């Protein structure tokens, strides 16, 4: 399963990329607004693309098809790593089809049902982003949606990649892996939690304490 970092924070992206922990990045308008400040958001997308060797989702903010297509084309011209992100609306799906016909990769975002995921695939989506945590937030089982999409996509031989999104803790990531999501996007805090285990820490401490008794260098 590919791991994407869900942030627009270049320092975080650089840290994870330098450790070869990530295969790409996803952003959304809220994440961009947190860090873009007075700068041109397009420059920030280019900076992110230069740090990570993989797809970088950049979301449109127009809500009509023509506006999304125009923004999508401009975003795609910024860098070959850009994947244009469009919302799962009627206009978004039409924009998805037009952008895909122009061979631009598209991530269809804000997916909350398996029927929506099927429609995104019909529109040629490169990625579908089911938002697991936001479904959990309203008392649904977000991970069940990932399972349903996997089943339907496999049943019909659909190649759209399932990008598990809105993941809030390591258990979400484990479940996404086990369900066969193609990719998962995680906030930096969740990525580093994946690496941690108390038995790793205590085991390392014991090895180091035992080695000290030898009083030798390597
Ligand atoms: C995915 O592409 C979104 O940017 C993200 O995963 C949303 O996560 P949130 O629900 O924690 O905001």
List the helices and strands and how they pair.
Layout: E1 2-6, H1 10-18, E2 24-26, H2 29-35, H3 41-51, E3 56-59, H4 65-78, E4 82-87, H5 90-101, E5 106-111, H6 114-122, E6 127-130, H7 132-137, H8 142-155, E7 161-164, H9 170-179, E8 183-186, H10 188-195, H11 198-214
Parallel strand pairs: 1-2, 1-8, 2-3, 3-4, 4-5, 5-6, 6-7, 7-8
Helix pairs in contact: 1-3, 4-5, 8-9
**Cα-based radius of gyration, to the nearest Å:** 19 Å
Q: Please identify which CATH superfamily we are dealing with.
A: Aldolase class I
Structurally, the number of domains stands at 1
Total number of strands = 8
Ligand list: erythose-4-phosphate
Give the C-level CATH assignment: Alpha Beta
Number of helices: 11
Average pLDDT level? 97
Q: Uncertain spans, ≥5 residues at pLDDT below 50?
A: none
Fraction of residues in β-strands:
15-25%
End-to-end gap: 37 Å
Q: Structural class of the helices, strands and pairings?
A: alpha/beta
Q: What string gives the helices and strands in order?
A: EHEHHEHEHEHEHHEHEHH
């Amino acid at each position: 399963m590919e791991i994407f970092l869900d942030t627009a924070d270049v320092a975080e992206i650089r840290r994870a990329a330098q450790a070869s922990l990530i295969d790409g990045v996803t952003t959304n308008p809220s994440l961009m607004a947190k860090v873009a400040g007075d700068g041109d958001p397009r420059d920030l997308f280019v900076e992110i693309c230069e740090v990570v060797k993989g797809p970088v989702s950049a979301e449109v903010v127009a809500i009509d098809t023509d506006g999304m297509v125009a923004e999508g084309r401009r975003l795609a011209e910024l860098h070959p790593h850009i994947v244009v992100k469009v919302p799962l609306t009627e206009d978004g799906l039409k924009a998805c089809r037009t952008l895909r016909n122009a061979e631009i990769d598209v991530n269809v975002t804000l997916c909350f049902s398996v029927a929506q995921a099927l429609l995104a695939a019909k529109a040629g989506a490169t990625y579908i982003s089911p938002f697991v945590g936001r479904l959990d937030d309203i008392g649904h089982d977000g991970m069940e949606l990932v399972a349903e999409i996997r089943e339907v996509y496999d049943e019909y031989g659909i190649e759209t990649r399932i990008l598990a999104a809105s993941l809030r803790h390591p258990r979400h990531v484990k479940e996404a892996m086990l369900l066969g999501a193609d990719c998962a996007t995680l906030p930096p805090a969740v990525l580093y939690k994946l690496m941690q285990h108390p038995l790793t820490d205590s085991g390392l401490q014991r090895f180091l304490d035992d080695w000290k008794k030898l009083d030798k260098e390597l």
